[in-house]
Amino acid sequence: MKKRILRIAAETFPIAGAFRIARGAKTQAHVIRVEIEEDGAVGRGECVPYGRYGETIESVTAAIAGLGEAVAAGLTAESLQSSLPPGAARNALDCALWDLEAKISGIPVWRRAGLPMPVPFLTAYTISLASPAEMAASARECARPLLKLKLGEPAHDAARLDAIADAVPQCRLIVDANEGWSLDDLERLMPALLAARVELIEQPLPATRDSVLDQFRSQVPLCADESVHGLETLDIVARRYGYVNVKLDKTGGFTEALALTRAARARGLKVMLGCMVSTSLAMAPAALLAPLADVIDLDGPLLLSEDRTPRLNYRGATVDPPSPELWG
Fold first, then answer.
1. CA angle 317-318-323, nearest 5°?
2. Residue 143's pLDDT band (cuts 50, 70, 90)
3. 8 and 64 in contact (C-beta within 8 Å)?
4. Are 103 and 175 contained in the same domain?
5. Residue in 103, 148, 150, 250 annotated catalytic
6. Torsions phi, psi for 72 (to 5 deg)
7. pLDDT tens per residue, range 26-76
8. The domain that contains 299 carries what CATH number?
9. What's the chain's average pLDDT?
10. How many C-beta atoms surround the C-beta of residue 195 within 10 A?
């Protein structure tokens, strides 16, 4: 095997306006791009270090660089799974390895992974946390078929739901509380959620306190996000949630995301594909899982004021599959 060259670059992309959730706001997306080159072929991956799990640009970069010799010696996606824990660093490397193999072999990732041929799909569009009037105005302005509402301030969330439902009665709504509610909040907000025709509630309670959901029967389906990571979390999650949010930065790459998606479906759970605020390079691997998903939220590039090139083709709320030049 020819020696492989590993390249790591920290990059910043401006967000259009600000992206605000219950845990805070940001105006820039900080990502890490990884390239692995072999004999002129280049495989690429992108990750977003997530402070919620103690990750930083520096720590993730160091973890990736620490496998430089292993990459040069021919590290595979399979052996990578035991070389790094789930998280952003493994995600970028894993995706770069899948992409490199596709570039070398000429066989697309979807075929090697045993997935259906990718086709265009509908993505949700995220409305950042703001005042009820501001969120209603944002929803009215974009008016995409499926909107994801960032909530998590329970004293004001019912007013937000009412305002948005009135502003865009034609839109389907899902909400993400980002661990910002208690069980009492969830029960108190249920009438407003039902009145707004909300179809899905993502991570209403903190992951460390969601055991109370074992005995709770929600009138709106619940989706685990921070509560689900890899295969080892599925047994507990299946008792509390009807959906799991599969994000490559949580699972640690395409390899585990594919396995988690298939295992969740085998357990009767529905699948939501999620993302961090990042570029088309981060979305592309997840996009290949779209045929296995029930809800897709891959709008990261739409939240940026500029994307990288090549990029995914967004036609309103419809996303075309990634081109070979972008990934896979």
1. 135
2. confident
3. yes
4. no
5. 150
6. -60, -30
7. 899 999 999 999 999 999 999 999 988 899 999 999 999 999 999 999 999
8. 3.20.20.120
9. 96
10. 12
Is 103 catalytic? The answer is: no
* 150 given a catalytic annotation: yes
DSSP designation for 321: P
Which of 148, 247, 250, 270 is catalytic? The answer is 247
Cis omega (within 30 of 0) for bond into 310: yes
Q: Is 123 helix (H, G, I), strand (E, B) or coil?
A: coil
Q: The tokens of 106 are what?
A: 């000429």
Q: What sign results for the dihedral spanned by CA atoms 257, 258, 261, 266?
A: negative
Tell me how long the chain is. 328
- Closest by CA to 46, choosing from 251, 281, 253, is 281
CA distances from 43 to 61, 91, 217, 229, 299 (A): 17, 13, 45, 25, 23
Residue 322 · residue 328 · CB < 8 Å: yes
78 and 47 fall within a common domain: yes
Confidence of residue 179 (pLDDT cuts 50, 70, 90): very high
- Same-domain check for residues 138 and 96: no
Reduce the DSSP state of residue 84 to 3 states and report it. coil
- Beta carbons of 127 and 177 less than 8 angstroms apart: no
Q: Rounded CA gap, 149 and 223, in Å?
A: 14
| 3-class DSSP state of 168 | coil
Domain carrying residue 240: 121-319
Q: Give the pairing type, strands 41-47 and 24-38.
A: antiparallel
Does residue 50 sit in the same domain as residue 133?
no
Please provide the distance, in angstroms rounded to a whole number, between the alpha carbons at the two ends of the chain. 21
Separation between Cα atoms, residue 65 and residue 50, nearest integer Å: 18
